[in-house]
Amino acid sequence: MTKTLDEIAAQLRDANKKVQLIYAFNGTGKTRLSRAMKTLIAPRIEGDDTPARNKILYYSAFTEDLFYWDNDLKGDGLPKLVIQPNSFTDWILVDQGQEVNITRVFQHYSKAALTPTFNQAYTRDNEDGSNTEVKAFSEVTFTIEAGDDARTDAFKISKGEESNFIWSIFYTLLETVVAELSIAEPDQRGTDQFNALEYVFVDDPVSSLDENHLIELAVNLANLINKAPAQLRFVITTHSPLFYNVLHNELDLKKKPANDGCYLLERHADGSFTLNTKYGDANKSFTYHLHLRRMLEEAIAQDKVERYHFTLLRNLYEKTAGFLGHDKWGDLLNTAEGNKEAYVRLINTFSHSSLSTEQIADPTPQQKQTVKFLLDNLIDNYGYWKQEAQDV
């Protein structure tokens, strides 16, 4: 039975499990599910100004949207990562004063010499034209410590480093939360701001990490979850089989009855979803490529090919190429009639995560037909697929 994301959010809430681990392909709706959980757990109520973060913390693309770059191209100033006014960063930076610990985590996952500097602002403009003195962190600059007290001028870090930095803020907050809530007596805690916290939702923090750091992040997150008190419940979503497997093992989910709390989230061509219970880790149970094939065939049959199906098709080619020992997934297009470069360009255009949906038009009927053509090319020309069909 298919469901809406709101219904799946309710299913996760009602399950009342300490940890629920969800595998989902990119483009399935993991980020929107985090938003649906936030709305369900901490709905906006008129007249109630209680921040949602008092009940649920979530890390997702929405968290990254709190930060943007001011490159000051006209004034030739130093680039700054601007923090939009929000209660989340105020909570961890102003209330908890965790700049040093954030830097520690960030440098661990990036470079030891890469140093963030948190710049403070102390005034706020009021509607009546007056100013109110407030302590807030409005921007961050990044430098490289070169030794002998020398450092570079501030510069713009890479997108991957930026993602690591934002995750470091969230992870440091999570460490603080677990430490405080692990103190049994509420009146002995350093703050009461976490006392009502119920859920932590983590959506794919590993997209910019190499394999070694990905594994380490998964182990550290699992250790934190294992130490967390029972009042905290965690929902973790990922598109990475490796990240899923490490968490699955570190959290000992294989010992749970029927892998209680392990799921595969699927999006169907009609926009509905299913949350299927999974057994074993990703290597043993997902049959990743077969799920991809089935989703593509369903969309083709219903003439509902969308942009995200090109991402699925690329993932399918990448997995097959890796299995067969090819360096590039485009090598598998050598058996397809037509312009190989054009096919690669088409798939990259629709699957490239840095291109916004506003920049890319919906696929044309001819482009949708190309999805079928390239899927057929994979199935018809590689014995790997024919063997899998016999095994299913």
UniProtKB/TrEMBL annotation:
InterPro entries: CR006_AAA (IPR026866), P-loop_NTPase (IPR027417)
SUPFAM superfamilies, per database record: P-loop containing nucleoside triphosphate hydrolases
Protein CR006 P-loop domain location: 197-356
Protein name, UniProt field: AAA domain-containing protein
Taxonomic source organism: Rhodobacter capsulatus (Rhodopseudomonas capsulata)
High-level lineage: Bacteria, Pseudomonadati, Pseudomonadota, Alphaproteobacteria, Rhodobacterales
